[in-house]
Amino acid sequence: MSRSLSSLAQQSLYAAETGDAFLVLLTLSHPDLSAPICVTSDALPTVSNGVTFVPFPFDLALPNDLDAKSYRARLVIDNVDRQIVTAVRSVTTAPDILIQIVRAATPDTVEAAFVDFKLTNVIYDAYRIEGDLTVEDFTAEPYPAGSFSPGFFPGLF
Question: CB burial class (10 A; 0-12, 13-18, 19+) of residue 33?
């Protein structure tokens, strides 16, 4: 799957050396939460499109673009602040995760976005929070979804 990047991002990626840094911005949201939790991989707060992302240590392993069956990413967040574990405990369904990649020089330009992730299979302890980032697998849905039968369409028969 190809992604379109800005020309400045492409120059940074293809350069032998660059001073440009790419940041990962995570947004954890859920209807039961009063406000989304927004964190950045940078050591300093990042303001992107009017939203302030606070520095928070985390590791993110994205799914491989080449493997069509790999719909899972893995997220490990250091449990240095109880805000995230409290949020995960307070919701009854899987929270939504939005992942955005930006350049530190232009944080308002989103170079890549990964949407529709759900944080599932969450485990946590005093040191870290781990979970799978999954998307709904529509390939497992039956086709056709409905059938023309007398029970559903009595006037046709």
Answer: middle
Structural domain of residue 20, as residue ranges? 7-135
What pLDDT score was predicted for residue 47?
Answer: 95
Q: Please report the beta strands in the chain, taking only residues with DSSP state E, as ranges in sequence order.
A: 22-29, 37-40, 46-48, 51-55, 58-61, 73-78, 96-103, 110-124, 128-134
Residue with tokens 């406000």: 35
Per-residue confidence (pLDDT) for residue 96, from 0 to 100: 93
Q: Rounded CA gap, 9 and 103, in Å?
A: 7
pLDDT band at 155 (very low <50, low <70, confident <90, very high): confident
> Which CATH number fits the domain that encloses residue 76?
2.30.110
